[in-house]
């Protein structure tokens, strides 16, 4: 490849640009699992499990040398606690942005019920099959739709990137959030692209009104400590 084309490619893919913003999208650590018939509201804001706390510490150590200028998280406990473990190495406070919360998959399920109790077993099974086939959140009744979810996540992350032009930023969030941002950014119809590991790192660079994924689902810090889970 000629030097001319190499430079052009570097500029197009944001590896040869000034004042780029690097955003580390971090999935939260493993959460405590709710019981089968627990209300969906309990599962939605579950806290970190013992392993999840260890994963949060591990990703904090992994990003200790990143020189982060800001750390954001969703308002859900598992993401906020993961964000605090990251921020502890950088002398910054975690900024909470509710738009970064996980998809409201059971948002309209009555608070005292499980999803299966609300829609019935047959409809729940049909929704599960449809989700496998379509790979979209729109398959699930009584939940936040794909377009709504993508709009809030994509808008929030771009707003953060523009606010911190030229900075290094970590966002402790959720697997659905990471997938929704990338799917919307790259114009993909499916909502599910990959399964981020608990406390896995996906690095995205922002500049010139475009976002390029530099790394996806980094897990070496988890494998080294025998903490890998999904």
Automatic annotation (TrEMBL):
Stated name of the protein: Histidine phosphatase family protein
InterPro entries, sorted: His_Pase_superF_clade-1 (IPR013078), His_PPase_superfam (IPR029033), PGM_Phosphatase (IPR050275)
Superkingdom of the organism of origin: Bacteria
Organism: Brevibacterium pityocampae
Pfam families: His_Phos_1
């Amino acid at each position: 490849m000629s030097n001319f084309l190499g430079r052009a490619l570097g500029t197009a893919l944001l590896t040869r640009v000034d004042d780029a913003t690097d955003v580390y999208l971090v999935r939260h650590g493993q959460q405590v699992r709710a019981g089968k018939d627990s209300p969906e509201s309990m599962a939605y804001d579950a806290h970190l499990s013992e392993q999840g706390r260890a994963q949060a510490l591990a990703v904090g150590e992994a990003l200790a040398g990143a020189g982060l200028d800001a750390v954001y998280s969703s308002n859900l406990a598992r993401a906020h606690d993961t964000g605090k473990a990251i921020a502890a190495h950088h002398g910054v406070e975690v900024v909470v942005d509710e738009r970064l919360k996980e998809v409201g998959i059971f948002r309209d399920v009555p608070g005292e019920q499980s999803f299966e109790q609300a829609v019935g077993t047959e409809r729940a099974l049909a929704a599960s099959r449809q989700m496998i086939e379509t790979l979209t959140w729109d398959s699930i009744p009584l939940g936040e739709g794909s377009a709504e979810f993508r709009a809030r996540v994509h808008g929030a992350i771009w707003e953060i990137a523009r606010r911190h032009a030229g900075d290094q930023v970590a966002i402790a969030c959720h697997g659905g959030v990471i997938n929704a941002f990338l799917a919307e950014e790259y114009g993909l119809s499916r909502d599910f692209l990959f399964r981020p590991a608990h406390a896995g790192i996906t690095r995205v660079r922002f500049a010139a009104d475009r976002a390029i994924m530099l790394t996806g689902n980094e897990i070496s810090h988890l494998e080294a400590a025998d903490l890998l889970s999904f």
